[in-house]
Design a protein that fits this description.
The protein is an alpha/beta fold and 203 residues long. Helix content is 21%, strand content 33%. About 15% of the residues have low confidence.
Length: 203
């Protein structure tokens, strides 16, 4: 984390302290997840399954988090996102930062569950009378906050306290150049892109 000096910053919005709290370092039970906490805001990095249970020990509630950052577009990194949003409820806007299509993922999961509910409750269905799991019913009906996606292609996110730069990390491919020498080139042809984040505290 770095400090960024600006003459146009309101001193009242600059955090008096910042802490980095590690929810998980990537153990077998929980993928990497950490919290950057200030007196005014909380930033969450990755939401693996079980996050809603673990963050309570850090005195953090879902409604306190408006910005969530993802380092990889893998289930291990965002498997707990739906549950997190359901617990958060329809309060404010939730911003999703990092790999693209995270907002689409949330919408797809919820629409799939709703579609299954419609099928099982359709009077003309041969499966009339069958029920989905109660958790599926809740997931399809419970309102969540409006989502805003900040893909790494936007390069940065800024609020009154922080300037956060997105640093995409692509795979390096080795091939022979015209001189017959090995050359490493960056490629973004794959769908998996790791994203690092540089946090600069405004002072």
């Amino acid at each position: 984390m770095e400090q960024k000096t600006s003459s146009a910053i309101d001193p009242a919005l600059v955090p008096s302290r910042v802490s980095i709290e590690v929810v998980s370092s990537g153990s077998a039970q929980l993928a990497p997840c950490l919290i950057v906490k200030t007196p005014l805001k909380i930033y969450l990095f990755n939401v693996p399954e079980g996050t809603t249970r673990y963050i309570k020990s850090f005195h953090v509630r879902e409604v306190m988090v408006n910005d969530i950052f993802f380092t990889r577009a893998l289930w291990s990194n965002f498997g707990g996102l739906i549950g997190f949003l359901l617990n958060r409820g329809p309060t404010n806007i939730t911003r999703l930062h990092g790999p693209p299509n995270l907002k689409l993922f949330v919408e797809k999961i919820r629409s799939d569950v709703t579609g299954e509910l419609d099928f099982f409750h359709d009077d003309s269905s041969e499966n009339k009378g069958e029920n989905l799991d109660a958790a599926d019913v809740v997931a399809s009906k419970t309102p969540i906050s409006e989502l805003d996606e900040f893909s790494y292609k936007r390069q940065r996110f800024e609020d009154p306290a922080m300037l956060i730069s997105y640093i995409p990390v692509f795979e390096m491919s080795t091939h022979m150049d015209n001189d017959g020498k090995n050359s490493n080139k960056e490629t973004n042809s794959g769908t998996l892109v790791d994203v690092a984040f540089l946090l600069q505290l405004k002072v």
